[in-house]
Amino acid sequence: MKVKAKSPKAKFGLPAVFLLCSLFFFVGLFTFTLLSHVSFPQFLSGPRSVSRTLQSEDGEDHGPMPQGETGDSFIQSIPFQVLSWKPRALYFPRFATAEQCESVIEMAKTKLRPSALALRKGETTESTKGTRTSSGTFISASEDETGILEIIEEKIARATMLPRTHGEAFNVLRYEIGQKYDSHYDAFNPSEYGQQKSQRFASFLLYLSDVEEGGETMFPFENGLHMGMSYDYKKCIGLKVMPRQGDGLLFYSVLPNGTIDQTSLHGSCPVIKGEKWVATKWIRNQEDLE
Ligand SMILES: O=C(O)CCC(=O)C(=O)O
């Protein structure tokens, strides 16, 4: 006698089938929710579209706020890395494009002169010979018909929130092998330089080229290091920032209380191999009207 096989429906009954279907549905729903919140590594998820909104840690999207008269209607991101708090120094990778950097070098190339120094009381060109051996030139954004310096200047103003009108013209510098700038302060100490109309408050360096070896911007007193001992101002020590074309370095020479930050002492190590090009923008605490 043939035994008739029972159908699953008959075996488990309708409630069991319903339970199974519900289970599949909830597992599917849970997996979908999880995947849509987890950010996969770029190489797994493929190219992402750039969103104008910011995503906070709770996953909420934040759109732009209603802006004031002088503000923006969009969110902009300028990536940076805090390099140090003493001095306050920030690094901005890929601040300018390679093409922009090459154009600035081209603008400066034919105008280079030996770099000069602001002299302290009692110093002469002769007594300071060898302190700063680069060549350079000043170029203001208004002189640049390509508009590149204006774009860079505008971006510096946004990154620092220090108005463009407070910035001096760009000092474009070239260091050849062996050339350097011994450690110094950008801010003017009135007891050494006499009373000034305004103070150099912050400095923004845009590296226009890579350097094969040497040429780092150095901060020998970073975090108070080497400050107690008698430091040889020619020595290339402390925090060293390797120039990379298009990257920016910002540091503040003046503390929030208005005094000169003693740890903002800095210089350029000698170039050992290759050539270094950099554009410095000194930003003052008053509008720069000259
Ligand atoms: O070339 C550098 O890295 C430093 C330049 C500098 O110290 C300056 O322009 O004040």
From TrEMBL:
EC number: 1.14.11.2
Family that this chain belongs to: Belongs to the P4HA family.
Reaction(s) the record says it catalyses: L-prolyl-[collagen] + 2-oxoglutarate + O2 = trans-4-hydroxy-L-prolyl-[collagen] + succinate + CO2
Region (Disordered), start-end ranges: 51-70
UniProt domain Fe2OG dioxygenase: residue ranges: 165-285
Cellular component terms (Gene Ontology): endoplasmic reticulum; endoplasmic reticulum membrane; Golgi apparatus
UniProt xrefs under PROSITE patterns: FE2OG_OXY (PS51471)
Pfam family, one: 2OG-FeII_Oxy_3
Cofactor(s) required for function per UniProt: L-ascorbate
UniProt-annotated location(s): Endoplasmic reticulum membrane
An example molecular function term from Gene Ontology annotations: L-ascorbic acid binding
Matches recorded under SMART domains: P4Hc
Membrane topology according to the record: Single-pass type II membrane protein
Keywords per UniProt: Dioxygenase, Endoplasmic reticulum, Glycoprotein, Iron, Membrane, Metal-binding, Oxidoreductase, Signal-anchor, Transmembrane, Transmembrane helix
Statement: the UniProt record of this protein carries the keyword Transferase: no
Full protein name: procollagen-proline 4-dioxygenase
Residue ranges of the TM segments: 12-35
